[in-house]
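Continuing the batch. This is chain 6 of the set; chains 1 through 5 are on the previous pages. Same settings as before, nothing changed between runs. Recording input and output for traceability.
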Amino acid sequence: MPITRRSALACLGAGLAAWPTFSGAAETRRTAPGIAFAFSLYGMRTLPLTRALRVCADIGYSGVELACMTGWPCDPAALAAADRASLRRQLDDLSLDLPCLMENWKLVAPAEAHRANLDRLQVVAELAQDLRGDGSPPLIETVLGGRPEEWPTVRDAMVLALGDWERVAEKSKVVIAIKAHVSGALHRPEDALWLVRQINSPWIKLVFDFSHFERQGLELRPSLRQMLPETVFVHVKDNVTTADGKTEFALPGDGKTNYNDYLRQLVDGNYHGSVCVEVSAQVSSKPGYNPIVAAERSYLNLRGAFEQAGLRARA
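Output for chain 6:
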């Protein structure tokens, strides 16, 4: 039976009632020393922004990533000054952190598209500053486009283009975090590390998303150990094998990733950023997908791993 709005809300309410320690209280959500637990609104495009934030806070997430692509609810073009001030107030009222803004740019592009990307980067960086709250502005994270087989021929061009991005980031005082993607030109840990170290700037760092490396048959520990020194943001999701033998992304905890080990490795590696649930479009585009249920399920799937790593207060 498809999940309806009524059944999703009933499920959410029943789940929250069973979590006395994780009922959405700000003081409880902020007990995690060093690593925060966030949800990306990339998986909530169909929800009004104010409702999406409320759902994440009520479930128990400590923060959110806002999806800022063109046409999305947090597209800077859709947020006037009053909207930005209102959004900042709501984040404060709900005690939600804002660690990151999501974008989707292609790094190596024709000259006109490259200039447009730089202009867009400036606009998103201004949004980051407007939403910064009392601390540092949120990161801007993006994949880089291209195809895996292109890496050897585009990597030098990527260094040049990323140098232009770095100059905008430094001027705007906003960190850009780039993400390796299984289907992108930048797709392997060692290449991601090489690329950011060619720039060698505090304004260009990495996103770690193991699901893209798992697809390539790589192991968690060596991948994380390699990238962690330059990593400022972590996305989590899983992979599953479908009935027809294909591999597709899934909610975190629905696959084979050992999150107890994953979070322990982050703690031992002195990581101090956010661990953020990303719901892939391969999940959110399925018939019957409900963003509230996805957010709650992901939280339940990972809650125990956070506790075992000493990152959450126990009931």
